Amino acid sequence: MGHGGGGAMSAELVEHLFLPAYGSAAAPELGDSAVLDVGDGTRLAFSTDSFVVRPMFFPGGSIGDLAVNGTVNDLAMSGAVPLFLSSAFILQEGTALTELGRIAQDMGAAAREAGVRLVTGDTKVVDSGSGDGVYVNTSGIGVVPEGVRIGPRRAESGDAVLISGDIGVHGVAVLSCREGLEFGTAVESDTAPLHGLVAALLATGTDVHVLRDPTRGGVAASLNEIATASGVGVELVERDLPVPEPVRDACSLLGLDPLQVANEGKVIAVVPGGCADRVLAAMTAHPLGGGARRIGTVVSEHPGMVVARTGLGGTRVVGMPVGEQLPRIC
């Protein structure tokens, strides 16, 4: 299970199995989406993702809107305007058509909200007991605007690390539904399409260096991947991390680090330090960025490592998640 968790085991699987097997056929840079130059100055972003969340319906969403929003967001992390999506279903024999219909309705509604079209797809059915309800794969294509150059290797010392709002909400929402946990207040998934928020950031004219949506493995995995790809360090300020009380309580109860819990509607932005205030103003003015804040700084020290300054004045290493903290979360 850990190999699908988006942490260190996932990275090792890619580095030591897939990339050597693919050889020169593999893309030179690994990000949320691939940016492809198709000539005449046109660049396309292309991404694919699979969704196996359990349960299929959870507070604030379902596997249907999660699949659309997840792929839209992967395209948006390269600055692309998402245009077209595919939708492929793997169904377990015996799955209720009413459930499948509800998932399809959610996908259609999410696609309309995001302004993308579902243009191709596939359906397979496996024997009862060979699957678990419904699995969904979505791929997406978008257009990258001229002059936008965003990638995991562009983080530089002195850059500000920003996040668009509360972290860990999606993971705790799914977990609370799955395990029947209650935290005194409703916790709903933050699943949402982020390309509008990204467009607002780019409209400031800032040279945005890196964008990531911290899904599997949470903020910790995303920042560690950025630090490794760019050869820099990242220093977080623990008291500045936007962890809502229900998420903090759930993580304390279950022994989880909120930084390693999945999100589905948040964006990490790495921008030049001098532009941080301007970018934050644009984020907070957008409906999906009202809780945006600066959480850290890119540094030249300890390259490839993320650390957090604690409230007691010390520091702790924020490592890449090793396995799967919360399996089947997205």
Automatic annotation (TrEMBL):
<protein>
    <submittedName>
        <fullName>Hydrogenase expression/formation protein HypE</fullName>
    </submittedName>
</protein>
<dbReference type="Pfam" id="PF00586">
    <property type="entry name" value="AIRS"/>
</dbReference>
<comment type="similarity">
    <text>Belongs to the HypE family.</text>
</comment>
<dbReference type="InterPro" id="IPR036676">
    <property type="entry name" value="PurM-like_C_sf"/>
</dbReference>
<dbReference type="InterPro" id="IPR011854">
    <property type="entry name" value="HypE"/>
</dbReference>
<feature type="domain" description="PurM-like N-terminal">
    <location>
        <begin position="32"/>
        <end position="144"/>
    </location>
</feature>
<dbReference type="InterPro" id="IPR016188">
    <property type="entry name" value="PurM-like_N"/>
</dbReference>
<dbReference type="InterPro" id="IPR010918">
    <property type="entry name" value="PurM-like_C_dom"/>
</dbReference>
<dbReference type="InterPro" id="IPR036921">
    <property type="entry name" value="PurM-like_N_sf"/>
</dbReference>
<feature type="domain" description="PurM-like C-terminal">
    <location>
        <begin position="157"/>
        <end position="302"/>
    </location>
</feature>
<dbReference type="Pfam" id="PF02769">
    <property type="entry name" value="AIRS_C"/>
</dbReference>
